[in-house]
Amino acid sequence: MSLRIKWECWVEPSSGTRRHSFLRAPYGLRDMTFSWGSKRPIGIANEGTDQDSTLELEQIALCVVILERFLQALEPVDIARNYKEELQRGLYHPDDSVKILAITQVGRIVECSAALAEIFNNLELLKQIILSIGGDKLSVAKEAIKSISKIAQTTSGLDVLFSSNLLTELKNVMAISDIVRYRVYELVVEISSVSAESLGYCVTSGLVPQLLEELTGDDVLIRVTCTEMVTSLATTLHGRQYLAQQGIIDKISNMILGADSDPFSGFYLPGLVKFFGNLAVVDSPQQICEHYPAFLQKVFDMAEGQDVTMLGVAVDTLGILGSNLEGKQVLQKTGSKFQTILKRIGHHAKNSSTEMRVRCLDALSSLFYLPEDCHTEDLLAMARTWFHSLSAQPMDLFRSIASQPFPELHCGALKVFTAIANQSWAQKLMIESPGFIEYVVDRTVDPDKDSKDAKFALVKALAGSKTVAATMGNPHYLMLRAYLREGPYYIKAVSSVAVEGAE
User: Fold this and answer.
1) pLDDT above 90 as % of the chain
2) Domains in the chain and their CATH numbers?
């Protein structure tokens, strides 16, 4: 049945009487009208009790839910053309859920090419969304950032944001507080990451240069926040090229070199190391480590140090760096130095806090994994040497961890076994370890879903290896294939016979 619907939820100032109703008429859903304005902002007037206020909030929440359902049924272009004023009034509403609904609908509209012009011509609406970034509620600010980022996906959208008074509004919002300024930086980095053209607009606006200036400034806490944002920018090729052209990568390298003489370096050094770690993965580990040797040396220093925070960052970074073949080769070139680091990681995997042990296990699983098409004699020998550098009895080390009643440690150890499962030297160690294969196919030792999934991944890696049948023998291979065929959650049926007269 077609309806024409008008939803009202407001309060008469004189009587305090709530009015909320559906008005019907024989028109299509596209003729729906709605009002979310409040004739009296909630909580301002003295009339009414706390119970009344609570009921009013519940009614507005219900209005939002219903309106959201109806608006989803409309085409974005229809909303843009027919409900401009309502959307704008929603941004002024004192209830955050109404603001979020209005901003979300703008986000839908800008994803529709036919409706873009309607939004771009409504600068007042865009201004209110920008002002929402500076609001007290983070949820509203995040939705505003998301919608503005969508607006900037096109050249015309970039022109509207950066070539009009909206840029002035954006800069005015930044002046509200440090927190709001970082929200705007987050938006700018998100826009800049889209394309070289987007980055050009953000650079010309002066916002990206301002961010980079704060990165190299004297304020330690600001430096920490800016480093995270610059790291996001560096994930794109055009972003890395711009940072290199501006000398920012060299400056970050120099900041790492000077960290030893800075008593406050503990605040920002982890972020700088993460920056180079991510840069190495998306670019070239060999080039990054050769051009910026201070990075890898600092990672090794942190791994050998006593600071738990620095140790965790170093372990994570080594795991990231060694997650691809080129990174493994870079680490291998350091020779005995990296083997010493591995011994430290093996020690912490056994003796440190649960969180640190899990981080060590995750890093080791990344370091040891080799795709089968990379199983050259040199790389297999490298992996075997690394494995034996961890401890005198590395198989016993990981079996001990896997047997502990902590799911995160149990699964972490299984991940390490899975990483080496397709390598023939590891398969020999497994078959020589008493009861290992029986442990692998024993379903009773994995009580939860994550453990069952981790065990199944190990069995799958072993059964899928080209060398496992020859290395472990056909009976063990058949056991693995049977486990694989039954799936991760198989439960063997147990038959029982009832005997008459038995108690």
Assistant:
1) 61
2) 335-503 (1.25.10)
